[in-house]
Amino acid sequence: MVGNIILYFVVALVIAVFSFMAVKTTKILRAATYLLFVLIGSAVFYFQLGYQFLGAVQIAVYAGGIMVLFVFAIILTHKPNDPENPLRSHRRVWGVIASVGGAVLLLWALFTMPMLEGEGVRSLSDALAAGPDITMKMIGQAFTGTSKYQYLLPFEAVSVLLLACIIGGVTVARKR
After folding, report:
1. Nearest to 121 by CA among 107, 105, 139
2. What secondary structure does DSSP assign to 82-144, as a single string?
3. For residue 4, how far is the Cα from the chain centroid?
4. Which of the listed residues 70, 112, 162, 172 has the most CB atoms within 10 Å of its CB?
5. What average pLDDT score do residues 120-149 get?
6. Residues 47 and 55: beta-carbon distance below 8 Å
7. Distance separating alpha carbons of residues 120 and 176, to the nearest angstrom
8. Are 13 and 45 spatial neighbours (Cβ–Cβ below 8 Å)?
């Protein structure tokens, strides 16, 4: 029990540090490598919770497949000797404002958006107040369903977006 708590805090610290390093580095391949460590840390959380299949999928699909695609796209589209222009201060201010605004909007949506229909749970706040009435089956149905408040369509839209990015990267690389 104490070992699980220690492991949780160590992995959480590793994820936080590598997330920060991925954002702060100026080398794009290093950022992809740091992101790989963050994804592996997320898989450790799944394994710690007892979701071995999800942990294996996290490593195989995200840490393996997606990261290979990211690195492949980076290598195809990025010239390592190109001079990089650092952000000017006014762009950083707008970036911070946009980030804080996005975080506030995301948290507001997370706590107020309806999540499950017909189960008495209308938002995350209601779900937290209701206790352990939400099962893994209900969460799985919410992620893979096509009804109202279910997320199969956004998941497929993101996969099409990733495919378009890969095709665009290959097209740009061929034109060079």
Report:
1. 139
2. SPPPPPPHHHHHHHHHHHHHHHHHHHHHHHHS---SSSS--SHHHHHHH-TT--HHHHHHHHH
3. 24
4. 70
5. 68
6. yes
7. 56
8. no
